[in-house]
Amino acid sequence: MATGERRDPFRGFKFRVQIGGIQRAGFREVSGLDAATDSIDYREGDDKTLTIHKLPGLKKFANITLKRGITNDLDLWKWRKQVMDGKIKEARQNGSIILMDDEGNDVAQWDFVAAWPTKWTGPGFNATANEVAIDTIELTHEGLDRTK
């Protein structure tokens, strides 16, 4: 990047979700793109400074939460039902969260692996409101990588 060239951040409202290679539209919100590495404290037995040293531990990934308006598309519910029926091995899917710029070009992508729906939450209903009915699905997974 040349000196003085400005790169503005992308807006977070234009994105799409792919699960198992199938595009899923209409998500209102995605959260949980979070990766961390534990640190392990240790002390050398002959360390005269009494300093704690740090080693990298296990990698941890937060659950990904997807929220969308309810439609007659039952694919995500059927996926969750696979897990409830004990078919977790068959249910595991890879997927991606893809951020787009204002023109619809892909500008960032996060890939997750071996995901399965660990929780589904249905909408709340209120006869005096006019909001869209939203359901929430939470995915647990075994890895997250930013590929773009």
UniProtKB/TrEMBL annotation:
UniProt xrefs under InterPro entries: CHP02241, Phage_T4_Gp19
**Molecular function, one GO term:** structural molecule activity
Cross-referenced Pfam families? Phage_T4_gp19
NCBIfam families per the UniProt record, alphabetical: conserved hypothetical phage tail region protein
Q: What is this protein called?
A: Phage tail protein
Q: Which organism is it from?
A: Paraburkholderia ribeironis
